[in-house]
User: Fold this.
Amino acid sequence: MQVQLPSSLHVDGDDRRLRLDPRDAGFFQNPYPAYGELHRAAVPLFWEELGCLAIAEHRLISAILRDRRFGRIIPDASGRAEGDAVPEGSRNFYGLEANSLMELEPPAHTRLRSFVTKGFVARRIDPLEPSIAAIADDLIDGFADRAEVDLVARFATPLAVAAIARLVGLDASAHADMLAWSHAMVAMYQFGRTPEVEAAADAAAAKFRDFMHAAIATRRRRPADDLISNLIQAETVAGRLGEDEMVATLILLMNAGHEATVHQIGNGVKAVLEAGANGAALFSSRDRSSAAVEEILRFDTPLHLFRRIALEEVELSGGTRLRRGEPVALLLAAGNRDPRRFADPDRFDPERSAFGHVSFDAGIHFCIGAPLARLEMAVALERLFGRLPQIRIATPPRYGDTWHFHGLTRLDLALR
Assistant:
């Protein structure tokens, strides 16, 4: 079958340059042929539209994620970002970012993560399985008698939001607001954002911040068995978590905890059905489910890009040099399709050993919610395919114009 390459793609291996518009529909609908060209180039390339070096090789991506000569920011002595001017219209958004785990390095990152990790240990995640299954069943009950359903809107989104909100300790009445705030804030990370996007993100950040302050105040008065209460009560040798740190952490967990999971459920169901796999058999036991989940994460991961910044001068294999402060784009999804790491990488094979993918980052910034994401996917797909084994794709799926947050705008399934 002939592979269709994006019209904006131009790879110059001699000059080590890449031109590729992330808003090119031929790319964001199917970025994998373009990633194949990067693998054939076999060297890091300077991606002109992103303004930085792009890495597609699994081995090098994995190494950089773990290399302490790279970080998310250029840190000061405390591990927080060196003082850059904050845009006047985005103070609410960047006020949260300043206390976000994603935007900290040691020692601040180490201290903050030590509090949050306690909420994501197996003894807290595993007991959520019955409630996730109950949420999935309730959602399926709501559309099982229909001829068709948009799985993204009716299943993946409400399940992911409900699961992370329940762990955190947030009331179901606020799900719609939190979803809207999250979408607005996450749009800030997209290529080619506009002033309108920035204004919407800042307004959403302010509302989400105020909501979380109120939720924390409620839990101070009435503690419960949830993450907010645990963070309030947590104490280590480093002291307690500050209120602003707690708010930023909870918002990050809510945003990251549902955005990627929504996309992964949609992408995963699409992959299973397009491959002609027997979903009911594939998710008939937890051992089989676990292997299939890892292959889904490898095959069509929802997060295609993580940036790292060189914290000192670094020479990569092959002679490429980075100066202190230079960013590098790590193309996680390209690494997961690297033929030097995974045989026949463009084939969805739930029987393969897909462990070793880089979908959850690695090193000190490894996704803290990975255990919950894996459990949600396994339970959701077990319930979906177990109860509706006959489902099939009704309309060709389309991905959103959001590139590195790679997810379907909708997934219309025929139920009979």
The chain is about 45% helix and 10% strand. The two ends are 30 Å apart (CA to CA).
